[in-house]
Specification:
This protein is of the alpha+beta class. Helices cover 36% and strands 27% of the residues. It folds into 3 domains: 54 residues; 88 residues, Roll (Pdz3 Domain), CATH 2.30.42; 196 residues, 2-enoyl-CoA Hydratase, Chain A, domain 1 (Alpha-Beta Complex). The longest helix is centred in the first third of the chain and has 54 residues. It starts with 6 loop residues before the first helix and ends with a helix.
């Protein structure tokens, strides 16, 4: 039997439903408004404290205030207040240095420097094909003066800053060896940094050292990889010890020829959604591989090792890695400054995120600094040779 509802009852039900909807909407709107007001009040309190501090400092500080430095310091302090060691604010100058570093190129003299016990600047390493490489200067030489200014008088940091300059500009250095000083004039120029270098070891073992993942690393890596393969490499040792990471796009291009087709790594963001971070196509090198890692292997360096390990392509030799499994993005502001902000955590498609934990190698070999022999490399070579022999 069909039941009918009277027109009056229907109108009453609609009115009740509308009233309930209005009440619920008002309730949640009020909750949202109260939350927003609380947030605004909290922000006002914070910025009010900053304004109070600024007024107090300007009234009582015995010294000159550099407004640009003050502004940069406030912005750096804000990001530092997040308590995240990977997030940071970059001034326009620092941002340009970051771009230059990521590009895998640098402008300068090609010197690795440190402070000597005398207070002067000691040359630790000289890049090949650099402005200094053919001048007769050697590692261990001491820079005592930059542009006629004594390093002890100017200070180590200021003297290092004075070495920086535009491409094509010249600089005069006084360099001491065996107590004798000599003046040199060099011209700064752009140089490509080698972040992937290879060689053929005994037994046709291809060895590639990757010091970081710059914009040009993948090109260098693939070039070395193909050269070693064409020369008859039977297996590979990839060395990512002391590799602090770098660009994920470069990492992806490096692991692509080594891994099977599919999603290799994903990133999970604040809102819970995940994106593919690293993908490999169908081309795949099928040779025994070993990756050497240590406690300074971090970020993209770890992801390189984890990807090859998790997909069954390589064994790891060395010590526990650093444990950085979070990703940063760099966003530029209109004034040329930028913020490097942690935005996601990542992992391979086959294991959990190793952030704060690190990756444990299958073969643990401590790095003994007291011995000249590279025991980790020796073990890696032994391991890959056993894998080659096992294939026969």
């Amino acid at each position: 039997m069909n039941k009918k509802i009277s027109l009056g009852l229907a109108i009453s039900l609609i009115a009740i439903a509308s009233a309930v909807t209005f009440i619920l909407t008002s309730f949640f709107s009020l909750q949202s408004f109260n939350s927003m007001v609380k947030d605004v009040n909290e922000k006002a309190k914070k910025y009010g404290s900053l304004q109070t501090l600024d007024g107090f400092v300007r009234e009582h500080y015995y010294g000159d205030i550099d407004e640009d430095n003050l502004s940069d310091g406030i912005l750096k302090g804000y990001v530092s207040g997040l308590g995240d060691k990977y997030s940071r604010y970059l001034t326009p100058e620092e941002y340009q240095e970051e771009i230059s570093s990521d590009s895998g190129k640098l402008v300068g003299l090609g010197l690795t420097l440190t402070q000597d016990e005398s207070g002067y600047i000691r040359i630790v390493e000289i890049m090949a094909d650099s402005p200094v490489s053919d001048a007769g200067v050697r590692a261990g030489d001491i820079i005592t003066s930059v542009e006629g200014n004594d390093v002890l008088t100017e200070g180590f940091d200021s003297s290092i800053d004075a070495l920086m300059g535009q491409e094509g500009t010249s600089i005069t250095l006084t360099i001491r060896r065996d107590g004798i000083d000599k003046d040199y004039v060099f011209t700064r120029r752009s140089m490509e940094v080698k972040s992937a270098e290879g060689e053929m070891l005994k037994g046709y073992i291809g060895y590639i050292k990757i010091t970081g993942f710059k914009k040009n690393t993948s090109e260098q890596f693939i070039s070395e990889l193909e050269k070693l393969r064409s020369n008859g490499a039977k297996g590979f040792v990839f060395d990512v010890r002391d590799n602090p990471g770098g660009l994920v796009t470069s990492l992806e291009e490096c692991v692509d020829p080594l891994l099977p087709e599919g999603v290799i790594a994903t990133a999970e963001y604040l809102d819970g959604h995940s994106d593919t971070l690293v993908y490999s196509d169908e081309s795949e090198i099928d040779l025994p591989m070993v990756v050497i890692v240590n406690k300074k292997t971090a970020s993209a360096g770890e992801l390189f090792a984890a990807s090859l390990k998790d997909f069954g392509k390589a064994q790891l030799v060395g010590t526990q890695t650093y444990g950085k499994g979070v990703m940063q993005e760099t966003s530029r502001f209109d004034d040329g400054s930028a913020v490097v902000l942690t935005v996601a955590k990542y992992k391979t498609a086959k294991s959990e995120c190793y952030d704060g934990i690190g990756i444990t190698p299958e073969v643990i070999i401590d790095d003994d600094a007291e011995t000249e022999a590279d025991e980790q490399l020796e073990k890696a070579i032994e391991t890959v040779k056993l894998a080659i022999a096992g294939e026969k």
